[in-house]
Amino acid sequence: MKTVRIHEFGDESVLKYEDVPVPVPASDEVLVKIEAIGVNRADATIRRGAYTFNPDSFPVTMGMEFAGTVAAKGDEVSDFSIGQRVVTYAGTGGYAEYAVAKALRTRPTPAGIDSRTAASVPVTFLTAWCGLVEVAALKAGDWVLVQAGGSGVGVAAIQVCKQIGARVVVTAGNDEKCARCIGLGADFAINYTSKDFVPEVMGLTGGRGADVVLEMVGGDVFTRSLEVVAPGGRFVSIGRAGGPVPDKAPELPGGRSATRFFVNTYLNERPEGYRHIDTFLQRIGQGGYQVIIDTIFPLSEAAGAHRRLIGREHFGKILLVP
Ligand SMILES: NC(=O)c1ccc[n+]([C@@H]2O[C@H](COP(=O)([O-])OP(=O)(O)OC[C@H]3O[C@@H](n4cnc5c(N)ncnc54)[C@H](OP(=O)(O)O)[C@@H]3O)[C@@H](O)[C@H]2O)c1
Known about the structure:
The protein is of the alpha/beta class. It has helices spanning 41-48, 115-119, 122-135, 152-164, 175-183, 197-204, 219-225, 263-269, 276-285, 302-310; strands at residues 2-5, 16-19, 29-39, 65-73, 85-88, 98-102, 106-108, 143-146, 167-172, 188-191, 210-215, 229-237, 257-260, 293-298, 317-321.
């Protein structure tokens, strides 16, 4: 089968389109014949060797999430049948025609949801839901600041906030992305290239600040986002797309809390959380959530997908198809 692997860390040129044997599922795994693969910022960070949890040996096959059909399964797997349509947050291995995934991390794809839509869901919606609702205890009426509203996670976060009944302010790097965030339900969108988000958020919230901040950019944006957390507010740092973040979240005064959140670690400790995928897909089927697919690249052009992601041209999800 074809796969895309790296044998060293580096720029897009280290992504190699290669032939390898089809993997064999372990007793608790399914083998998925892949139809679509979600590309995540973390893939590019792993490729560069800059990820928080760097792989310790090569070759590495990236691809955290993918959708397709069950081609084989291990002895202990009773919840899935051969040929069944599934989606998984496998964590790794997805840049390929076939990949194995723990059955525990895999969910059925319902009728009416295509594999491209399904593959866009696990990482973004699980991160947004668990980070905002379960960790930050988001509730109706809260003010939320979502940094990078046009990112894969940002697009999901806007919609989770609106479902809960929160008021959501986003930042984005151009006016078009801002308009698209508003189109998804954001109440306010700040183009951070022309306006400083700190006074904007303080003004919108009557000087109080945001009850919840979802931060994923890092660097100066991380530091300045701390300035807009309301008394009793919850700051959740999930990423560092543009700059460093401290390993440990800072102590904040005034009943405010700050958390560094990793959805993979969180769900490893709470595997029942993968079942949220069922709810997300159901809601998508009913038109309650939108999946925004920016671009679809052939697997052989994974380098192009990474370039588009790093270039920040995209809005929503980038996919690969074998
Ligand atoms: N902790 C977790 O469990 C978890 C899970 C998933 C994702 N994440 C993190 O969440 C973030 C979003 O992930 P994603 O896959 O949705 O990413 P993405 O689609 O690649 O979006 C990242 C966005 O960040 C914005 N950004 C602002 N300043 C930037 C800078 N200096 N360099 C690069 N980007 C900058 C860009 O939007 P503008 O052009 O509008 O500025 C960019 O599109 C990433 O940091 C990722 O690592 C964390």
